[in-house]
Amino acid sequence: MAQYTRVSGVVGLITLQNPPVNALSAVVRQGIVDKVETALSDPKVKSVVICGQNGNFCGGADIKEFGTKMFGPPLIPMIHSIEAANKPVVAAIEGSALGGGLELALGCHYRIAHSKARLGLPEVTLGLLPAAGGSQRLPRLIGVPAALNLITTGRHVTAAEALQLGIVDQVTDHNTVDAAVKFALSVAGRSLDARRISTYPCPRPSDLDALFEEVMQKVRQSARGAIAPVACVQAVRAAATLPYTQGMEREKELMATLFTSGQARAMQYIFFAQRAVGRWRMPSGASWDTSKPRPVTKAAVIGLGTMGRGIAVALARAGLSVVAVETQEKQLLEAKQAMSSMLERGAKRRGGVPALGLISYSQSIQAAADVDLVIEAVFEDMALKIEVFKQLTAVCKPGTLLCTNTSGLDVDQLASETPNPELVVGMHFFAPAHVMNLLEVVYGPRSSPQAVATAMQLGKKMGKASVAVGNCSGFVGNRMLKLYLEQASFLLEEGATPELVDRALEEFGFPMGVFRMSDLSGLDVGWRVRKAAGLAEPGEASGPSARIRKGYRYSPIGDLVCEQGRFGQKTGRGWYQYEKPGSRVARSDPWMHSFLEQYRARHGLVARSIDHQEVLERCLYSLINEGFRILEDGIAAGPEDIDVIYVFGYGWPRHRGGPMFYASMVGLAKVLERLEHYHQAHPDVPNLQPCSLLRRLVASGSPPVHMWREVRKKLHSQL
Ligand SMILES: CCCCCCCC/C=C\C/C=C/C(=O)SCCNC(=O)CCNC(=O)[C@H](O)C(C)(C)COP(=O)(O)OP(=O)(O)OC[C@H]1O[C@@H](n2cnc3c(N)ncnc32)[C@H](O)[C@@H]1OP(=O)(O)O
Fold it and tell me: Which residues form the 3-hydroxyacyl-CoA dehydrogenase NAD binding domain (predicted)?
């Protein structure tokens, strides 16, 4: 709702009230319409201020209303009536003015913002466009290039940038509502002719066509297959080329297509899923609302390889004091230099001061004596990690949380080597750790809820989507990835090329296909793991057993590629070739094609034609099937956890909502049928066998994603 009061005798103050972000629900819209009318019809009122309750202007349209039958006054005429008012209306912006919230402010005649406020039109991140006049007013106010940037990226700007761009008229460090009321008093009675943005001509850059062409290419490239960024560009083009009313018609038309699209549903699902994963629950019943995190002000990072450096930088950026420990002197010096420049570059990009002073460096683990939490990031080797944990136990003050950064080692085994296993959790960061926004917080059976709560809170503080998951080989992300990689290799054996597989996945929306991605991460990493697991055998065996391990199909192709010293980008050769070691542009490699032909010939495999659909079904459905197993095992509490992990950590296209949501969009019955089909065709691949939770869900009529937990519970209670 909206509250109305008169202040200073002549200013009508309308306060939006809809905690926590004052979203524009039907009730709020009705409140605004009513209170604006009250203010405009009161002869004593000379000007109006609109603000939001509890230091937050407005988080935009109420996303929960989308997909439901919408009622209440629509936004467009509501904003139009504010702009058309004959008394000045001032927006007092504190906290956030986002989406419909900023569009409301753009309908006001003036905008005053607090210095800490954030403004933006993030609709594109929800699969939409700013369709309450935002796509038409913003370019008229700040010009086409700046509006295109804001609307197609959805980025939030600070009040200082908003002032510089011309979005707001004034920034204050003091009470924003007081400043706005004072301002409203000063402009009372002034002509508003020059303050209605919809009447402004849109500034047209001379190279309009070239500009739109360039931006269109950029958005098509950065979010492959996503329709909202394209519609955003089209809407801004309408602002630049059509009169306002026709532009509004175009905005409405484009929004109508987006609003009911599967992509918008997927992106809005991810918005809520990202928040839902913060409400974690362990199988023991312990959960976010019953477990209090410990305060962490000082942390240590042990081991300053690539991961350790990124983690230490992320911690310092979050404002923690960090003790960075590396026993090798040369490595320590290198790390210090690299981390300083990471911090400096980051500060330059974001604006602000690099947190150099927050990090102290040491060669001795003793330096971790007084920290609240340690993140061990040494080499991925259990014996080494056990040794480091032993030393930490002796050095650290009682109660220090011991976290291990591992991408798949057994967290419980490590915990069992310490006298206080309840203080141990896994923190699986993704490389580069100061850039990637995902963290898997891995709890073992003995991790205390408080340790989990602390790691989750720390992840959030570092700005990462943090997901609590159970302990198993590969946790959630890598456990599923293994199946995806496996199918990709099988497809090569059967006749595909790396290019064909990658093209199919990139057209689906991944920023990189599986082979280009593997070249980037380094092929030797997986090879080492396969060797340790006794899967990769030296030299090339032939005969039927060469492609069988433990009775099941295995593809040694990746091992053979590594044996050639082809580790990907770092060696200049991998699944593709590169201009030189370290180069990033992948080029087709004739060597690889003849290698694959010879390999197939040696193993008596006849290449067949493989289409994109088969690539997608085999790679994605096997990964999804493992996702269902993970749910069945209780390693992830719900499908949202898996989807957030895949969207934030593995490049799964956001507009497809994550693998589990995607499965629900495809139809669970279809996923099941295709898995059965492929399992029949490849009985030696057990992972293609549909798991029982998937079968149970289909038998229960394929309920929507949010009901899967219930079905799983029932399945468990019957086992
Ligand atoms: C046929 C055509 C039909 C046309 C119909 C047209 C209608 C639309 C017309 C115009 C277009 C306008 C569209 C929009 O405005 S879309 C919304 C744009 N706004 C956003 O994307 C902002 C989303 N919110 C945030 O980014 C953040 O919440 C924040 C920065 C505002 C605050 O962050 P923080 O303090 O970290 O809090 P949380 O994110 O945790 O949020 C708290 C709580 O609030 C819920 N919530 C946040 N924003 C909204 C919202 N806009 N609507 C509904 N609910 C919202 C959030 O989900 C959290 O709750 P929880 O999930 O229960 O935890």
Answer: 298-471
